[in-house]
Amino acid sequence: MSTDICQVLLIEDDPTFALLVERLLSKYPASSLAKGNYFQVTRASTLLAGLEQLAQGCFDVVLLDLMLPDSQGLDTLGQVLARFPKVPVVVQTGADDEPIVVQAFQMGAHGYLPKHNMDGNLLVYAIRLAIERQLQINRFEENYQQEPDSELQGLEELANSVRTTIASRMFGAQPLREGWPDLFQEFVSEYSKLMDLALEQQTYKVEHNISQKLNAMAEKLGLLKAGPRDVVDIHTKALRQKTQNANLAKAQAYVGEGRLMVLELMGYLTSFYRKYYIGLSNIKIIQSTASGEIG
């Protein structure tokens, strides 16, 4: 957003109301609510014209009438958000319909203004709030994009580090995703379902025995000689699938629960190899003792 001028796109087919909005905003160049910004209003009288303006220009906020000549209702909002999800939208409607307002917010609107009770302070406040909210979302998305990479970096280093004697004997040379792609996808699907169960367990305080299921998965991975690299691959693919179309809150929840799950699965896999290696060592000792007695 510019430090001097706030670019406002007003998509409104009523010229009288559009003029009212322009006049109200012109009175607030030095308002404390406007934080010293001037408002420059560009008007479009149809949804098509508004979308064309958004494609050509750089706007800080959209004031959107839901009832336009070429689009009516929440579909109007849906089309704007689908094309320009990063631009904050404040919906304007003459209908005092609370369900529509609630649905608009659920779809992604950043504010609501009743056309029958337009006030300059309320108008400026709604614009500022919408812009601030979008900035917060942008910051969260930047952190969210970095968070999986940073949290997986340690696991990546573990997976690619010098392997222990146990690991070098036990792990398969070829990654699971390459050697057994069908089995790999089955593990991804199973892990993905466990992520959903983990969220449900956390949200509704129900018991799904996630730890027991992760332990069982670790044993199956161990029998296939899977290693830390395979665990990271499974976790990463499942996490990407889960967060791809999730809203921000749910995506953050998946990241948080996934962080705990991947570490727990890694721990169970390590325990499996320890027990397996100890078992092999005991067998070798018995075999050596038996050979000595025979000799």
TrEMBL record:
Which GO MF terms are attached to this record? phosphorelay response regulator activity; transcription cis-regulatory region binding
The UniProt entry, under InterPro entries, shows: CheY-like_superfamily, Sig_transdc_resp-reg_receiver, WalR-like
Q: Which PROSITE patterns match?
A: RESPONSE_REGULATORY
Asked if Transmembrane is a keyword of the record, the answer is no
Q: What is this protein called?
A: Response regulator
Q: Which residues carry this modification: 4-aspartylphosphate?
A: 65
The Response regulatory domain covers 7-130
> Can you name the source organism?
Planktothricoides sp. SpSt-374
Q: Which GO terms describe its cellular component?
A: cytosol; protein-DNA complex
Q: Which GO terms describe its biological process?
A: regulation of DNA-templated transcription
Identify the SMART domains for this entry: REC
Keywords of the record: DNA-binding, Phosphoprotein, Transcription, Transcription regulation, Two-component regulatory system
